[in-house]
Amino acid sequence: MSLILAFIAGLIFFLPFPGWPKLVGFVTSSRVLSFGAGPIVLLTMRTQLPNHEQPFRLKGVWVIAFLALWSSNLIVYWSGWATDWKLFLAILFGFILLRLNQLSNRVHTPPLDFKPGRWMVAWFAGLALISYLGSYPDPATGNLGIICSNRGILVIFRLSLLIVWLGYKSRLPTEQVEEELAQTSQGEEPPAPLAE
Hints:
The protein is mainly alpha-helical and 196 residues long. Helices cover 70% and strands 0% of the residues. It is built from seven helices and no strands. The protein has helices at residues 2-14, 20-48, 61-79, 81-104, 114-133, 149-169, 174-185. Helix 2 (20-48) runs parallel beside helix 6 and helix 3 packs across helix 5 (114-133). The longest helix is centred in the first third of the chain and has 29 residues, at 20-48. 18% of the residues are buried.
């Protein structure tokens, strides 16, 4: 029975993808896109929680964070529009499910705060637009081919700069972050120290 269910689940996952390489491209793009938020989180947490213990200090954190986001954006861009439109559609579907879950009131989830999260909307929308206007890998895959490959790298560079700035500027105030952190940590045991 489990073999039959695994077979059916596999068929469902392959439904929007014509083959294994397309599915791998989608999974790779989604994984890399999820890593792209890390640099913004690093920069904002350094400012939001200055009094918390930091196990190590990263020199050149702004440069490294920008390069990490730029690299992430380039990998998603290089996946091509044929993969990217499915990725951004999946993100939109996930957001709709999250919103429906909040409206159902079955499980208490904190409200979505759009003001500090607006950088993510700009990031996803910008990346989707550049991918659609770009010529990578080939305009035959559905993209318009207006932006050549080399210019696309520069456009992604500018988008990455904008997103780093917007993500840092729209962060939550330090007081609010510390208050929410204190509320979540009440009644919980501190995590065990890492073994050396």
